[in-house]
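In the previous chapter we treated chains in isolation. Here, by contrast, the input contains three separate entities that must be folded as one system, with a combined length of 997 residues.
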Amino acid sequence: MTVHVRTTINAEPQEFLCEPGETLLEALRSRLGLTGTKEGCATGDCGACSVLLDGRLVPACLVLAAEVSGREVLTVEGVATGDTLHPVQQKFLEHAALQCGVCTPGFVVAAKALLDHNDDPTEEQVRYWLAGNLCRCTGYDKIVRAVLDAAADMRGVTV
Amino acid sequence: MATVHFSRGLARYTGGVESLTVDAPRVQELLVVVTERFPGLTQPLEVMAIAVDGEVHQHHDYLKLRPDSEIHFVPQIAGG
Amino acid sequence: MSTATKTFEHVGTRPIRHDGLDKVTGRANYGADYALPGMLHGYVVRSPHAHARIVSIDTSAAEAMAGVKAVVTGSDIPKTNAKLVMGEAALDLGAMGDNALAHDKALYEGHAVAAVAATSPEIASAAAEAIRVVYEPLQPVMNVDQALAPDALILHDGMVTKGRPKPDAPTRTNVALRMELTRGDLDKGFAGADVVIERTFTTPMVHQGYIEPHACVARWGEDGQVVVWTSTQGHFVVRDCCAGILGIDAARIKVIPSEIGGGFGGKIPVYLEPVAIALARKAHRPVKLVMSREDVFRASGPTSGTKIRVKLGAKKDGSFVAASASLYYEAGAYAGSPAGAGAMCAIAAYDIPNFLVEAYDIVVNRPKVAAYRAPGAPAAAFAVESVVDEVARRLGKDPIELRLQNAVREGDQAAYGPEFGPIGLREVLEAARCHPHWKAPLVPQPGRKVGRGVACGFWFNAGLNSSATVSLSADGSANVVTGNPDIGGTRVAQALMVSEELGIPVERVRPIVADTDSIGYNDVTGGSRVCYATGMAVIEAARDAQAQLRARAAKIWDVPVEQVGWERGRAIALNGASGREPLTVSELAAKLMHTGGPIIGSATVNAPMAGPAFGAHICDLEVDEDTGVSRVVRYTVVQDVGKAVHPSYVEGQMQGGASQGIGWALNEEYVYDAEGHLQNPGFLDYRMPVASDLPMIDTVIIEVANPLHPYGVRGVGEVPIVPPLAAVANAMHDATRVRFTALPLSPPRVLAALKQRG
């Protein structure tokens, strides 16, 4: 049985067919060519496939593709606006907050989700919010600094 | 004459000789002299790299030796 | 602090990396992101047994399924004795091929025994289920004690101990190699000691834990030409390994590296690539193979679990007089643990007149280990640096003072043989001693104990072979091409080197990682060698281009080339030609077509082993004595890197290495049951540090120039994983007064020890 899904992805209407057991992660990567969302574990433990579903942070590997019918999905490909990077993306570049970069899309989406509802998080809040995203290269130091700096930037404060 | 040093572990195969001066233009010729003199070293040296004057080299056969060169045998390593 | 005298204009700045935009927007393509028209999906069948003879494999039912296009087993991989020389070490292609698809025996749980390619992942996995493998299970050999037991089952029938086996060593053995380092008179040395500490330590098998699983796509053309897209630390090595394993001409294989999602040494060997090629050849279609996270844990290379005995003797005044150490390292299913490197690093930081260090490489029924960041050194440092800490306490000495007192310096003969050139251990220890962290008072939270530990670490850094070209464009920009996958910011570092030599702004230099057909040979991205050795090739290539530019200036000025110099990115007129205005790269580039055509600078290097490097780490650990839970609350990394080309990425390496080491110390371990089944092959139960586990990690970059490199670079990536195991354990001792000799310091182990302490 194939499921017909009508949804919104990165503010664009999208339609696709999928298997009932197929995850959103598989559908994004294989059917829609949105390979920015990465698979690190497929068990919801690493955060590399973080996306926003109706504004809520979820691992795409634990969501069925069929579940996003009629809902809004935001992936890393939709975080920048035109030629303007989201402050989180810009600060990741400036702070060298990525090394291999494979976890970066998940961190960008997760950090954006945090700043969407809290524009002045403490270091501890950033660390706990991002605790679902594994990075093996950086030790998180520069990631946390980048997110705090992005928050300041969004508040119009220079640090 | 270059000086070859044998660690005490290697000296087991040299009858206790801990260093040897060898007149050889390059590492290749030096190794021939060393293994002819101490055939027992052939097998242990297969798993060793060579340090010439403090620098460990991976492709050492044609490396020219100075009259005062110091040669050590060191275990092989691989990096991550 | 810097002993480097050279001044730099571009090197040492922190520009945005060229590949950064693609990585923050999700556009960068990693191993699993490739898809080709007509591509099939592969699935690997893996042994459920840790040790078993393969009696038969019946693939007929799978092959008969609709959508199945090819099935391969060990019989599709020729047995070979071939070796591939890679730097100091030789890769055993026979073992690598047998590891990719087992021939006669399954040697660990997860060992690949067959593979399927089908039109969908679902059909491939269903077909894999339909493959009937008959095993004759054997008793697994799971650790060094079992492997060394007199009645141990032998994993490989023909194994003989290489190196320097003991004279009375048994002929049937699981010991692949024994080596030793000795100096002086051990008995006399210990006899003269006032304090002797002897302890035995164990560390668990741990995984590199890169976030991107292994993945590749292989295509076999009608003309026999093979193309492989893969995530690897070295595509030239993938090419040569696949050629050797499959018995095909390397000239027919092109390997295109994807972006790489972490490796730390674990993406040097090939696992999937030969299998994907074999499937593609049979199916006449491209084949994609991707490991699941479980596959990564069970069947890609972790690093050795170890057992290490250390004995250290010191005089009352603190001087070390004798040391002995025996290192037993699990190699996994095939020979090749980093025991030898562990032995060479164990006491490398100290000048000790009498020592004996021996190391054993031991096969067991676990996945074949791969390199992991300073392979072999962290476990050895855990043992030695814990004992050094204990000697300091026994003598009532400051642990940094004691280390400084015994630290090696330039001119000392390294324990592993050669004399040290300029090294920065003393500078590192002095900086640690002066750091505010070392002087800050320890303030425990209510209900917690807090302690501080320090430890040193050493790594050689590698040299090896690299090629680079620098091409100028008529607009005065340039591209720099190398063949080392960029695992953590090496593209921008190479661009900075070109900027430094040619005076071109870094954003106008385009760094490129080229495939095996498009640039000369490059050894792997590993051994902390890319900034050092490939950097050397880049600098030489840029200087080659610069020499050609000077010749062009000479042509324009109509003077001999000897009268043209180079300064700050401009050709300048010397002596006889004086009075002429300098020509910038842009001005010279604009005239390229009038002065002789395009300019490409090129260089290759066969670099000697790089500059030895040391680090020292300070760790504050807070322990909840009711639960055994501990947490690093402050951490400082001090390291001699020679020269930091892009300081942000140098700091990043130091922070990342430290956090991997902290994970190793506190939580990470492979947990096997008695039958050899891995109990925790996932990120939930294999517990790596997350953001909320760690504090900010302070870094202090020390620059003692490496005379082998034009800018003084030593390499940075590996040293920082060496000290943390001991730094954390020493902090734990400071907090609890318990000397832990087994890692990880997970809450149950800590709680049990505290209970015993009372």
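Chain A has a mean pLDDT of 97. The radius of gyration of chain A is 16 Å. Compare these points with the single-chain example from earlier in the chapter.
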